[in-house]
């Protein structure tokens, strides 16, 4: 027999199994699935276009510079969020792919690119910190490439294993690997974001732009660290509990909660880092004396 659960403003019907009927109805409703996944599609498309617009603004401001870290960061944001938008736009075709390996490639590839995009920001901060402390920076960029290369190589190996064996254990390993990668990304933000934050705090209070940069580094560190930790915990839970699986069609509420917890931080970071680089003064310019 179903039991009633009352709150101040709502009345929920709870079955003997402990599941709420309204949750099941949403999960099984095609209208809700369509609305939630198309909402995610529109949200990711919006953030993708914001990143592209910001990339164009930077290019028009300083066209003489090549592919700086700032430009690459916004380009990768455009690609990552654009891929997510496409996947959610064709959500039914993606989630109903018969080949589990191909489905995981489509769903995990944006996650890998997301990792590369935001660890690029960690690299940028690490270079600033090392330069400020007069430490060598020549090994930082190769370390970034090596770490990303190892992550991609491991993930591709897992995809091949899933394709060949079709083992549920390999699928769990793939999710746990993503969880571990997310944890270390959060750790990277905590280490170098924290170091840069405390370095800026030691600057004189009257230093120009000190407080603005302090807020920028502090907010971005907090947002990105929280985002990757949430990703770490949720992906680990989905690997251990099938009822929390994100890569299925009939868990739209979990998908909405999880992906909104990623897209909102991405939008916040783009907003915080919206400042354009200063215009380059022409070499022929002579100040009036």
From TrEMBL:
Residues 21-289 form the THH1/TOM1/TOM3 domain. The keyword Transmembrane applies. Its main location: membrane. It is a multi-pass membrane protein. Pfam families: THH1_TOM1-3_dom. This is THH1/TOM1/TOM3 domain-containing protein. GO terms for cellular component: vacuolar membrane. It comes from Vitis vinifera (Grape). The chain crosses the membrane at residues 36-60, 72-91, 111-130, 142-164, 176-198, 219-240, 252-273. It is found in: Vacuole membrane. Keywords: Membrane, Transmembrane, Transmembrane helix, Vacuole.
């Amino acid at each position: 027999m179903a039991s009633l659960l009352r709150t101040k403003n709502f009345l929920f019907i709870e079955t003997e199994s402990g599941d709420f009927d309204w949750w099941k109805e949403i999960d099984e409703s095609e209208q809700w699935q369509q609305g939630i996944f198309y909402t995610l599609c529109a949200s990711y498309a919006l953030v993708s276009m914001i990143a592209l617009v910001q990339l164009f603004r930077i290019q028009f401001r300083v066209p003489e510079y090549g592919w700086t870290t700032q430009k690459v960061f916004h380009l990768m944001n455009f690609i990552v969020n654009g891929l997510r938008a496409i996947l959610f736009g064709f959500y039914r075709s993606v989630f109903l792919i018969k080949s589990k390996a191909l489905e995981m490639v489509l769903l995990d590839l944006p996650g890998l690119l997301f990792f590369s995009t935001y660890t690029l920001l960690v690299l940028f901060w690490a270079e600033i910190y090392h330069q400020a402390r007069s430490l060598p920076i020549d090994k930082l960029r190769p370390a970034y490439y090596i770490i990303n290369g190892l992550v991609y190589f491991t993930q591709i190996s897992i995809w091949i294993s899933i394709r060949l064996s079709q083992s549920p254990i390999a699928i769990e390993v793939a999710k746990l690997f993503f969880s571990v990668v997310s944890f270390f990304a959060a750790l990277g933000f905590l280490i170098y974001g924290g170091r840069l934050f405390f370095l800026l705090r030691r600057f004189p209070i009257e230093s120009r732009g000190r407080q603005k940069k302090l807020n920028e580094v502090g907010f971005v560190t907090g947002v990105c660290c929280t985002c990757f930790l949430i990703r770490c915990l949720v992906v680990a839970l989905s690997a251990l509990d099938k009822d929390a699986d994100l890569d299925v069609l009939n868990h739209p509420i979990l998908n909405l909660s999880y992906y909104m917890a990623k897209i909102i931080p991405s939008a916040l970071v783009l907003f915080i880092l919206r400042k354009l680089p200063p215009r380059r003064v022409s070499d022929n310019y002579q100040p009036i004396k």
